[in-house]
Amino acid sequence: MNNKDQFKKAGFSVINSESSENKLLDFLKENYPSVIMDNEIDLNELKAIVGLPIDNKVNGYGLNFVGRNVARAKYKQETEKELKLNTELSKNLDTTQNLVLKGDNLDSLKILKNHYMGKIKCIYIDPPYNTVNDEFVYRDKFDQEEAEVLGLANLSEADIKRLEFSFGSKKSHNGWLSFMYPRLLLAKDLLSKDGVIFISIDDNEQANLKLLCDEIFGEENFLSLMVIITGANQSGEGVRIQKNTEYCLAYSKTINSKCINRVDKVEESYRNLNDAPTPFETRKDMGYSIYYNPITKELIPLHDYDKERISTNDANQVYTDDTSLINRGFIPIRPGMRNNKLHRWRWNIDTFKNRIDEIVVFENDGEYQVKFKQKGLNPPKSYHNYGGGTSEVKNLFDGIKLFDYPKGLDYIKYLASIGCKDDEIILDFFAGSGTTGHAIMQLNAEDGGNRKFILCQIDDPLEKNKPAYKFCKDNNLPTVISSITIERLNRAGKNIAKEIEEENKKKGMFNESKKPVPDIGYKVFDSVMAPKLMLEDKQITIDNVCTDSLSRIYNMIFSVGIDEPTQTPEVIAENSIYKIGENYYITNSENISNDEFSNIINNGKVFIDGWTASLNATLQHYKEDVKIVF
Description:
Elements: H1 4-9, E1 13-15, H2 23-31, E2 36-37, E3 40-41, H3 43-50, H4 68-76, E4 81-85, E5 99-102, H5 105-116, E6 120-125, H6 144-149, H7 157-168, H8 173-190, E7 191-201, H9 203-218, E8 222-229, E9 245-252, E10 263-268, E11 280-283, E12 290-293, E13 298-301, E14 316-319, H10 323-327, E15 331-333, E16 337-338, E17 341-342, H11 349-354, E18 359-364, E19 367-378, E20 383-384, H12 390-396, H13 409-419, E21 425-428, H14 435-447, E22 452-457, H15 467-474, H16 481-507, E23 523-529, E24 532-536, E25 539-543, H17 549-560, E26 570-573, E27 577-580, E28 583-586, H18 594-601, E29 605-609, H19 617-621, E30 626-629
Parallel strand pairs: 1-30, 5-22, 5-23, 6-7, 6-21, 8-20, 21-22, 28-29, 29-30
Antiparallel strand pairs: 2-3, 4-23, 7-9, 8-9, 10-19, 11-14, 12-13, 12-15, 16-17, 18-19, 24-25, 26-27, 27-28
Helix pairs in contact: 4-8, 5-8, 5-17, 7-8, 8-9, 13-14, 14-16
């Protein structure tokens, strides 16, 4: 095995795990060489070229915080991690187009950047809120050694201490912004030209995050500060104003007509609809009832009242529901109350039957509400009343409350529907309980879409006194957050498949309208230390080389960036040669014969894993035809 310099000296073309190319710097050097002096940027010269006034006495407008330069350096720093395929936790490995990356999202985003730069249509994140009561899970490291690694010169001991305090303190605006800055820069790199990012946030950092995003994504690309009703009910002597809202910042990569999808016009009808068991009391002026099956999504209008049983003088009658419908899982819905008065439906029974496709049923805390579509499309609104996802997670996990305040499925489904089309990618690099992955699978099941998700979640240990820790122990799962993320995807996928199979059975075996089960699988990758050279007793050795051949192949696929990492490579020679399209990926190249090399070189492009390659005569012979990947 050899290092990069040896392959370069031998005349091989070498691909690094991360590209060191700086397109902006190259552009300035080529077109405006006067801006670069002694490998530094002359800001006054740059201002003069673009026509901005030069006045060092006047302060500019913007967000400044301790750790800004450190955060910038962390964005540029190459990751020391690579990915190892976790076949045990993966589901539908050979067919799925979804990814779950376990590990610090800063490393995961850098690894994703090689292939997905400019390809992600929608990003949703719910980052950790900066509150005094919460531990900051993703706290980035910073100390003297880290400053030297990042190449930050001229930092005094006082500077180091101040940065260490900012990075390590609870409720530190500086530390939180320094943490978010490099991750949002990488998020921007990943977004497509018409891409959009949604960021959930609360009061503590909303103002700072807005300024930070204005800088990163551009103030002109700001779409909205969406207000979300959370239903939180705070009380106590210290509470002056109850906080029952949080926010969602929305930015596009570039403002254009394709960045946000328009939505159906939906006119709200009567609320507080009844899901009471039979029999129920009703009034003759209500007109009729509707039955709704939340599993099959079917709506059935009940027949008109038995008019012979209702005298014109009686205000109320007891009406018995159709028990056969109830036994089949249907729930009665009827108009609700307004100002303590019962209201009739807006349509009569015949109109209802003719326009049933224009009715939409929403669930809200176990009650079903009916709304009616209008013709045409509207831009999305900035104010929403979506319930949380606590009950949804509890239902999946046998009544156990594993997460506090997870986002609701309907909320994330809505963002996905306005943020991407039915065949595009959504990324969530603070996956948490896995709501985004669950929402995408559910949305695909409902509309037949083929959206793909990429989730990133750190393997942070669960607290031993929490229900999530006990759940993992009881189910022989690693006691880390990502275990819950993946287990939720697994359970949600099974439920979705079961519901569709049951619905298809009712339609008959040969019915062409049967719904397909969406992609409910995912490839799971663990973040592990990448190989590195070690000097021991004046001998150079290589440490941390993952010996799993398929993982080595996937790392090359991520690094080269040509082929989609969700694809399953074809095995040409076990533990050595793999293929996607016309591209060949090789590990353990010393096991390959001259004839095998000759054959694959004549049929496509060849990439060889440098960490498992040896500079033997066979490889030397083909150095003009292969690329070495580190």
